[in-house]
Design goal:
Layout (H helix, E strand, L loop, with lengths): L20 H25 L4 E4 L3 H10 L6 H9 L1 H5 L5 E2 L6 H4 L24 E4 L2 E8 L6 E9 L14 E6 L8 E9 L6 E10 L5 E10 L59 E2 L4 E4 L2 E5 L3 E2 L11 E5 L33 E2 L4 E4 L2 E5 L3 E2 L11 E3 L2
Parallel strand pairs: 3-9
Antiparallel strand pairs: 1-4, 2-9, 4-7, 5-6, 5-8, 8-9, 10-13, 11-12, 12-14, 15-18, 16-17, 17-19
Helix pairs in contact: 2-3
Length: 393
């Protein structure tokens, strides 16, 4: 065989080799091979997808960062730790999963699939969340490279899961799994049965196992269950509910015998010389400023009271405003009405189960001083950590 025909003549003095048809063909094959190899490499390294509803951590953070608005503090934490966790949000994967998800991914590393690049997503915190309703729902996936799927599998955290802890496999229960399918860039998974939960904060965990490769993809979506509470059933600072409201003793239902009604004391509720001051009634309720007569004397209530006999206690709710002892001294400073509530008052009255107390009232019980946080009657001081009484000494 002779030498291939020369396509371009060699330039005199040049050391470049002659270009022949054979060389062109070989060069073309090499270029094609390198191009295909590059495409394979890009495809292998490319990101592949995550849920958009309920939105996954990575996609949610990417959207916030992209919009250059106020960024969720956990997303900002993720960006500071690993920018790739934000900008390559679709690539949380295990290339050798082959269905062995629990064997390959350790507890506490589920949201990152054990990848150091995505480790910030394993950190518990207030990640962006989606509110979802219990019942049958449709989930939406945003897949930048929609590989053939052996299945999409979804888990949800169990009732009572603590959102302040990193996610573990035992925290999850499976709620849905598809069969083999050919997903598209926007894929909807219908018929997902979202269970009802007592507490509000939960995580939906997605596993996407490819059928054409051992590779699998993962994502954590933080969700709030509509209608569930915030998980603060044991919170002590809830005294302001309607039944425990401390400042409601003078409502019509609590003061059926108000002495300062127009028929009893028209326009003169606080006048010491009022001729028609009613007699004290042990079954009636009285509030600050109400006056009664008892044992030939007139008494004025310093705070809400019922059943406390006027004059029975130096530190009781009643102050004498007229009578044998103080005929013209309704406002005598020696009997200042706001002294029983002084924290360091040495002679705090003993707690009485039949006496009603309001916010700020103090009593002594079992050698200790207690102060009421709201209206109470019959609640023994110290009997409950979340009760109306707070120990002040």
């Amino acid at each position: 065989m002779g030498e291939d025909p020369v396509i371009h003549k060699r330039v005199a003095g040049s050391s470049l080799p002659r270009v022949t048809k054979s060389r062109v063909a070989k060069t073309g094959v090499l270029i094609l091979f390198l191009t295909v190899l590059g495409l394979v490499a890009v495809q292998t390294a490319a990101a592949h997808g995550a849920p958009s509803d309920p939105i996954g951590q990575g996609l949610a953070c990417y959207e916030e960062v992209k919009n250059e608005g106020e960024t969720n503090e956990m997303c900002e934490f993720a960006r500071e730790q690993s920018g790739q966790a934000i900008y390559n949000w679709q690539g949380i994967r295990d290339g050798d999963a082959g269905g062995d998800h629990q064997e390959n991914i350790d507890d506490g590393e589920l949201c990152s699939a054990g990848s150091e690049r995505y480790a910030p997503y394993d950190e518990p915190g207030d990640w962006p969340s989606t509110t979802i309703e219990p019942g049958t729902q449709t989930f939406t996936l945003d897949l930048t490279a929609p590989h053939e799927a052996e299945y999409f599998r979804f888990y949800m955290t169990k009732d009572g899961w603590n959102p302040d802890t990193a996610l573990a496999w035992d925290d999850l229960e499976q709620i849905h799994e598809t069969g083999p399918m050919s997903p598209t860039e926007t894929t909807e998974i219908s018929g997902v049965d979202v269970p009802d939960r007592d507490n509000k904060e939960h995580v939906i965990y997605m596993v996407w196992q490819r059928s054409d490769s051992p590779e699998a993809f993962y994502s954590c979506s933080y969700v709030d269950i509509a209608g569930a509470d915030d998980g603060n059933d044991d919170t002590p600072d809830q005294p302001d509910t309607p039944t425990d409201t401390p400042d409601q003793p003078d409502t019509p239902t609590d003061t059926p015998d108000q002495p300062d009604t127009p028929t009893d004391t028209p326009d003169q509720p606080d006048t010491p010389d009022q001729p028609d001051v009613p007699a004290w009634d042990s079954g009636a309720t009285y509030t600050s400023g109400d006056q009664v007569t008892y044992n030939g004397k007139t008494w004025e209530a310093n705070w809400w009271t019922q059943g406390d006999e006027p004059g029975s206690s130096e530190w009781g709710p009643w102050e004498q405003v007229s009578g044998d002892d103080t005929p013209d001294q309704p406002d005598t400073p020696t009997d200042t009405p706001d002294q029983p509530d002084t924290p360091d008052q040495p002679d705090v009255p003993k707690w009485n189960s039949s006496t009603a107390y309001t916010s700020g009232d103090q009593v002594s019980y079992d050698g200790e001083t207690w102060e009421a946080n709201w209206w109470t009657q019959g609640d023994e001081p110290g009997s409950s950590q979340w009760g109306p009484w707070e120990r002040v000494e």
